[in-house]
């Protein structure tokens, strides 16, 4: 491969990395879950177009987040190798890439799904870029704000099919919103030094580890019953109810153990990983059990 081809390939890979593919894939999966579970019908073509537009909207928000946080990213191990802090890309490239992607994908989302879904996509994009991202340097409460755009994709998937904001879609929103709180605080606990070096605020920095562990346990206590709601609304059945109860008990148990033993960063990392397993498992069972009636 020629040097020019290698340079082009590297530039394309850097642009893709701005969209945070792993995070985007997780969020996109919840949007697809909302589509699958919602009552109504959306053609395969329109569903795929809506998912592509959703992915582009998520990617645009992440790219602009990378642009805004390019200086603080230099101080964190997991972000310092990104194109902007590493100096492989000019900031203006990321800015125009993110803005252009949003300019294309937000209208495409409204056209492929409906205006309501497009409006929710805009709220998710704007709140993530213009509220959550700058707030991270000012207050630990940014985690509460950031949970809103993170929880909107499954509701967007739901409204794309149903055309309305309904209890089932709101239950998925609530599940994602509450799940993000202990998940994010666990990250803040085991990456506390990096957050401090980057000038970002977090609950462990502002209130201490004991308070952070207590918050985590409170959020896990709320998450446990919230995750059962889709079954009571008829979105899923008994299989999901049993699975959600068992998964919630396991995650709560891990959180309670950390609080009782006053555990630190190794425990926080375990909880972070366990929360990812929890979300993946709960959505898998939700889609299997909730989609059983479609088969």
> Tally of extended strands?
0
Low-confidence stretches: none
Total helices: the number is 13
* CATH class label of the largest domain: Mainly Alpha
- Structural class of the helices, strands and pairings? mainly alpha
Total separate domains: 2
Q: What's the N-to-C terminus distance?
A: 48 Å
SS strand fraction: under 5%
CATH superfamily of the largest domain: UbiA prenyltransferase
The CATH architecture term of the largest domain is Orthogonal Bundle
The succession of helices and strands, N to C, reads HHHHHHHHHHHHH
Helix content: over 70%
Please compute the radius of gyration using only Cα atoms.
20 Å
For the sheet with most strands, the description reads:
none
């Amino acid at each position: 491969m020629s040097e020019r081809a290698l340079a082009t390939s590297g530039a394309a890979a850097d642009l893709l990395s701005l969209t945070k593919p792993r995070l985007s894939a997780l969020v996109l999966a919840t949007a697809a879950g909302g589509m699958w579970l919602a009552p109504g019908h959306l053609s395969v073509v329109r569903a795929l177009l809506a998912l592509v537009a959703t992915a582009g909207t998520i990617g645009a928000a992440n790219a602009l987040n990378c642009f805004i946080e390019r200086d603080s990213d230099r101080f964190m191990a997991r972000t310092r190798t990104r194109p902007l802090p590493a100096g492989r890309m000019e900031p203006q490239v990321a800015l125009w890439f993110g803005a252009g992607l949003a300019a294309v994908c937000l209208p495409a989302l409204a056209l492929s799904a409906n205006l309501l879904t497009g409006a929710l996509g805009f709220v998710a994009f704007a709140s993530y870029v213009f509220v959550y991202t700058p707030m991270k340097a000012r207050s630990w409460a940014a985690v509460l704000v950031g949970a809103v755009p993170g929880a909107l994709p499954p509701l967007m998937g739901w409204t794309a099919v149903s055309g309305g904001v309904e209890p089932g879609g709101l239950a998925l929103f609530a599940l994602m919103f509450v799940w993000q709180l202990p998940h994010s605080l666990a990250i803040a606990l085991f990456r506390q030094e990096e957050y401090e070096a980057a000038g970002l605020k977090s609950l462990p920095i502002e209130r201490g580890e004991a308070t952070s562990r207590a918050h985590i346990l409170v959020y896990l206590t709320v998450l446990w019953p919230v995750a059962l709601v889709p079954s009571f609304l008829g979105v899923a059945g008994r299989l999901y109810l049993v699975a959600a109860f068992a998964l919630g008990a396991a995650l709560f148990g891990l959180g309670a153990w950390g609080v009782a033993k006053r555990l630190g960063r190794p425990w926080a990392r375990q909880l972070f990983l366990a929360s990812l397993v929890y979300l993946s498992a709960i959505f898998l069972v939700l889609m299997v059990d909730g989609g059983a009636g479609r088969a």
